[in-house]
């Protein structure tokens, strides 16, 4: 069932069931009451990443909060996406874009990874906020898990060998990723995208030596890291993903 994009969607932490009532948080309450100017009885859509999507109505308003009453289930909770997206953090504005697009493209787990050329460590709360915002805007019900930042060598040391790790290698000998992707048989997948300076030679050699790693190119053009992330996710989903 497709999302209803005509109604306002809100992510809430509360359990959702018919007849449940609770106050929207202060920011959401201000948005509903003073930006959208919705009155009592107005309907919105709620989701929490666990219980599906529910219609709700504004049951009351005070100076501090908007009271919401859950009405009917609109869409059941889907299976959580199993695609891992592992990425070297970028500057704040571009990182916001990267996370939002990864969520839109079907990533179910986000893992910030520190490489030799990584220049910053991200704020996890900001990453989670961007994931929620993307889900609200795009009708997504499964909120991606955002894991703590990890160094590349520690990520590899604890890797599930049954999950195929696809990494974007700018030094690949071909410009076409299709042949490498079409040869992948595993259904558990992860994508690794490097920083603005790319992977170091040592990192590239380490990754290429691992039996569960597949290196892919992204064509003849030089792409910024955030653009490369979207391009790689798109081609993976189109060739071996859920498209």
From TrEMBL:
Gene3D superfamilies per the UniProt record, alphabetical: 3.40.1280.10, Hypothetical PUA domain-like, domain 1
Alphabetical UniProt keywords: Cytoplasm, Methyltransferase, rRNA processing, S-adenosyl-L-methionine, Transferase
EC number of this enzyme: 2.1.1.193
Domain Ribosomal RNA small subunit methyltransferase E PUA-like as annotated: residue spans: 26-70
GO CC, one annotated term: cytoplasm
CDD domains noted in UniProt: RsmE-like
UniProt similarity note: Belongs to the RNA methyltransferase RsmE family.
Enzyme class: transferase
Example of a GO biological process term: rRNA base methylation
Organism: Aminobacter aminovorans
Role of this protein: Specifically methylates the N3 position of the uracil ring of uridine 1498 (m3U1498) in 16S rRNA. Acts on the fully assembled 30S ribosomal subunit.
Catalytic activity: uridine(1498) in 16S rRNA + S-adenosyl-L-methionine = N(3)-methyluridine(1498) in 16S rRNA + S-adenosyl-L-homocysteine + H(+)
Protein name per UniProt: Ribosomal RNA small subunit methyltransferase E
Domain Ribosomal RNA small subunit methyltransferase E methyltransferase: from-to ranges: 82-237
Entry's localization field: Cytoplasm
GO molecular function, one term: rRNA (uridine-N3-)-methyltransferase activity
């Amino acid at each position: 069932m497709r999302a209803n994009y005509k109604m306002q969607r809100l992510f809430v932490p509360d359990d959702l069931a018919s007849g449940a009532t609770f106050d929207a948080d202060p920011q959401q309450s201000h948005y509903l009451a003073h930006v959208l100017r919705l009155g009592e009885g107005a309907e919105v859509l709620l989701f929490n990443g666990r219980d599906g999507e529910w219609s709700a109505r504004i049951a009351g308003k005070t100076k501090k909060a908007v009271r919401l009453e859950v009405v009917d289930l609109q869409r059941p909770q889907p299976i959580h996406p199993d695609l891992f997206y592992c990425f070297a953090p970028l500057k704040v504005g571009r990182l916001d874009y990267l996370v939002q697009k990864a969520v839109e493209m079907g990533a179910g787990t986000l893992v910030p990874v520190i490489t030799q050329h990584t220049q910053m460590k991200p704020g996890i709360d900001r990453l989670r906020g961007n994931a929620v915002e993307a889900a609200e805007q795009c009708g997504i019900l499964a909120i991606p898990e955002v894991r703590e930042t990890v160094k590349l060598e520690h990520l590899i040391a604890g890797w599930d060998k049954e999950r195929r790790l696809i990494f974007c290698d700018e030094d690949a000998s071909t410009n076409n990723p299709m042949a490498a992707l079409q040869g992948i048989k595993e259904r558990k997948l992860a994508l690794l995208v490097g920083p603005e300076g790319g992977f170091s030679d040592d990192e590239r050699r380490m990754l290429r030596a691992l039996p569960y790693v597949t290196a892919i190119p992204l064509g003849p053009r030089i792409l910024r890291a955030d653009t490369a992330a979207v391009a790689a996710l798109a081609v993976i989903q189109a060739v071996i993903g859920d498209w």
